[in-house]
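TL;DR need C-alpha cells for one chain.
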Amino acid sequence: MNYHDLLNIKYSIKYYFLLLILLFILLFIFISNKKIMDVYQTIGYVKDNNILINIPISNTMLSNLDNVTIENNKYYKNDLVVSDILLDEINLINYQEIEISLNNDIDDNLVVPVTIYYNEEKVLTKIKKLLF
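>> reply
TL;DR here they are.
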C-alpha cells in the first residue's frame, strides 16, 4: 500500500453523520430533563447563635426559595424564619431578614458566606424564558 492508495480510501460518511445526529439527540434529551437553580451569593453575620441574612426585596427569591447553604451545611425553607419588610434608612433599600438557628457554636459577630438556591426549573424552561 502506497501513499496514493491511502489517499483514495473512501470512508462511509453517512455512518459518521448518523452517529453524530444520534449523539446530539441523546445530548438534547439529557439536557432537557436536567433541573437547575438560580443562585444568589451574599454574606450573613452571626448573632446569638443565629445567622442573619439581609436580602433586598427586588429579588423574588423568597417565594421560590429551596435551600440556603452556609459552610457546606444545607438549611431548607422549613428551618428559616423570615421577617417582615424592613427599611435600611441609610441606603434607602427595602429588605427582608432571614434568620437561621444553628446547632453548633460559632463566635458572635462573625461574617460568613451564604449561598441561596432558588427557582428550580428545567434547562429548556430557562432557555425559553431567556429567549422570549
